[in-house]
């Protein structure tokens, strides 16, 4: 199972948020330095989020993100504010391995087909942000219906993988709820990366046992609640 350290970027700085709230941001400095630190500790992949994009200004942080992609050379997946075909193509063309499309995929599911046809489905990931069984969009503010039904549609439209985030526990460092992860894994055949609340070795083992393809670690890593070395050891 792949471990993706998160590099969330807001205003040119690497930050971590609690429950996706901008005002909760804690800064950890230069994004490239953070990325390189995780790689030096053994990470072979990165999960990058353009938080300014998620908050509606998608072109901010482009220079920082491109620098990470070029200078690290590791596998990268990127989400945050991709709200058009042009946005998606620009990130794919700059070298990001996979883009994560969430709200825009709900508004225009055919975008997944268009992008998968041109770039290959393996580079197109649909974001499944869920709360209490429902997909949530627009910065987790709007409910769009059953997350399993949306996941099925995203795959039919061309998504080659899914990023599942349990919004209810994201950023709290209080552990996971494995049931929706198991529910999703039992319904789909594409790789699923899991995010939200992963805090302990036991959380990682639980998710590993669902046959998830990977996990995203954010707040727990940055706060020191778990080390990347230990996470990598138990994820194997």
Automatic annotation (TrEMBL):
A single GO molecular function term of this UniProt record: 1-(5-phosphoribosyl)-5-[(5-phosphoribosylamino)methylideneamino]imidazole-4-carboxamide isomerase activity
Keywords, alphabetical: Amino-acid biosynthesis, Cytoplasm, Histidine biosynthesis, Isomerase
GO CC, alphabetical: cytoplasm
Superkingdom field: Archaea
GO biological process: L-histidine biosynthetic process; L-tryptophan biosynthetic process
Record-linked SUPFAM superfamilies: Ribulose-phoshate binding barrel
Reactions accelerated catalytically: 1-(5-phospho-beta-D-ribosyl)-5-[(5-phospho-beta-D-ribosylamino)methylideneamino]imidazole-4-carboxamide = 5-[(5-phospho-1-deoxy-D-ribulos-1-ylimino)methylamino]-1-(5-phospho-beta-D-ribosyl)imidazole-4-carboxamide
Pathway membership, UniProt: Amino-acid biosynthesis; L-histidine biosynthesis; L-histidine from 5-phospho-alpha-D-ribose 1-diphosphate: step 4/9
EC number: 5.3.1.16
Keyword flag Isomerase: yes
Catalytic residues (UniProt): 8, 129
Location(s) in or outside the cell: Cytoplasm
UniProt xrefs under PANTHER family: 1-(5-PHOSPHORIBOSYL)-5-[(5-PHOSPHORIBOSYLAMINO)METHYLIDENEAMINO] IMIDAZOLE-4-CARBOXAMIDE ISOMERASE
Family listed: Belongs to the HisA/HisF family.
Entry protein name: 1-(5-phosphoribosyl)-5-[(5-phosphoribosylamino)methylideneamino] imidazole-4-carboxamide isomerase
Provenance organism: Methanospirillum stamsii
Source taxonomy: Archaea, Methanobacteriati, Methanobacteriota, Stenosarchaea group, Methanomicrobia
